[in-house]
Amino acid sequence: MPTGIGGYRRWGGAQRSDGSVIPESRHVRNAPLPVRGSDVPVEAVDHLPGRHLFAGPYLSHFGHFFAEGISRLHAYRALRADIDGIVFIGRQRGGDSEVGERAAEVLQVLGVNHPVRIIAQPTRVDALFVPDQGAGLGLLAGGTPATHAMFREAYAEVTARPDGAARVLISRRYYGRMRGGVVLGGLLEENLEAQGYQSFAPERHSFAEQVATYKAARQIVGLDSSAFHVIATLGRADLDVGVILRRADGTKDLGPQLLGFTGRLPTIIDAIEEEFVREGAGQRRTWSRFAELDFPRLGRELQEAGLIDDLSVWQLPTPPLRQHFFDRYAKRFGKPLVPYRPAMAGDGE
After folding, report:
1. I want to staple 92 with a disulfide (CB 3.0 to 4.6 A). Which of 2, 35, 137, 138 is the partner?
2. Segment 203-259, tens digit of pLDDT
3. What are phi and psi of 44, to 5 degrees?
4. Which residues contact residue 255 at a Cβ distance below 8 angstroms, ignoring those fewer than 6 apart?
5. What's the CA gap between 223 and 242, in Å, rounded?
6. Quick one: the chain helix, strand, coil %, rounded to 5?
7. Cβ neighbours of 226 (radius 10 Å)
8. Do residues 69 and 40 lie in contact, with contact meaning Cβ atoms separated by under 8 Å?
9. Is 22 exposed, middle or buried (0-12, 13-18, 19+ CB in 10 A)?
10. What are the pLDDT digits (tens) for 100-124?
11. Sheet of 219-223: strands edge to edge?
12. Contact in structure between 157 and 80 (CB atoms under 8 Å)
């Protein structure tokens, strides 16, 4: 059954021919989510012949697709000789009909070479393999041993970038001010580049190139983002990871995920002084939030963690530079940044 009209409050899943829900098809976040039943007569549903692996919901946002949307594919290698394809469940109306380019790159690295379908209408299949969910957000953020093994085997076939930097900065430079971040993010990146970090914008590289870059690194630092979901799955206990919060809740899943996959906690730095959001942003607040950082504190904590060396070249914001940022933002979007309060958060968060 696809996810019902009304979004992911009505999750899809799979049921047996007698109408009973298959428990393993329930998607898990902080708890198993309820499965929407189908009131369509069996003879009226679509028919997909053959034997298929149930992959769970198709989540088009890269971070969600990677962290939880491929979490059943740990069973793929064992079943590949016994199946005809893989099925994701989508939205019954207004959802994706095909796997996106980035998602396809991930599946390629994972060695998937079977047809992949997104089911948007109630569909009967001849046989369906329903593995347990091996990773996710919330309860399953740390991943199961089977999921750890899936990534370990897949990444073993990706060669570390031979010219890769030892210090990698996850850059948001090419987002500009379109998707939130931190006030004076450019200054932050300049400071880290002065410490020997090489800026790397994941969205400008293929998924295989991202993995190759992270395999070559010894230290990775950046603002909390989907890139750290990928970094976690390398399972490298020898990698020093520093996550700088741009949202107060930015590591509620990243922290447990990095610990679960690597066996060690990352350095998590909360130097947020205040958060701002574009006035009138409504349910798009997540994409319009900017954190103002305490630069002196951030520099000290990065140095104490061994992630930077020389504080004497650590530049601090000046009042004119700060005001210039806010003025340019208001001019660009026609609305100013105003203080963000968690009580403002709506369903779009």
Report:
1. 2
2. 999 999 999 999 999 999 999 999 999 999 999 999 999 999 998 877 888 999 999
3. -95, -10
4. 243, 265, 266, 268
5. 9
6. 35, 20, 45
7. 18
8. no
9. middle
10. 999 999 999 999 999 999 998 889 9
11. 198-200, 167-170, 219-223, 240-244, 267-269
12. no
Single-letter amino acid code for the residue at 123: T
Residue 275 structure tokens:
């958060």
123-139 mean pLDDT: 94
- Amino acid sitting at position 186: G
Which pair of tokens denotes residue 210?
């991202």
Tell the residue number behind the tokens 């089911």, with chain if given.
119
| Helix H or strand E encompassing 222 | strand 219-223
Angle at which helix 207-216 crosses helix 101-109, to 10 degrees, equals 50
Residue 281's contacts (CB-CB under 8 Å, 6 or more residues apart) are 287, 288, 335
Tell me what pLDDT residue 44 has.
Answer: 59
Q: Which two tokens stand for residue 235?
A: 């399972």
What's the full length of the chain, in residues? 349
Q: Encode pLDDT of 6-65 as tens digits.
A: 444 567 889 888 888 899 999 998 888 877 665 555 565 889 999 999 999 999 889 999
Q: Can you list the alpha helix ranges (DSSP code H) found in the chain? A: 62-64, 76-79, 101-109, 145-155, 185-193, 207-216, 227-233, 254-262, 295-304, 319-333
Give the tokens for residue 193: 């580049």
pTM, two decimal places: 0.92
The residues near 139 (Cβ < 8 Å, ≥ 6 apart) are 28, 29, 30, 31
Phi first, then psi, for residue 34 (nearest 5°) are -65, 145
C-alpha span between 121 and 125 (Å, rounded): 12
Q: Does the structure show a pLDDT above 60 at 188?
A: yes
Q: Is 306 exposed, middle or buried (0-12, 13-18, 19+ CB in 10 A)?
A: exposed
At residue 264, the pLDDT reads 93
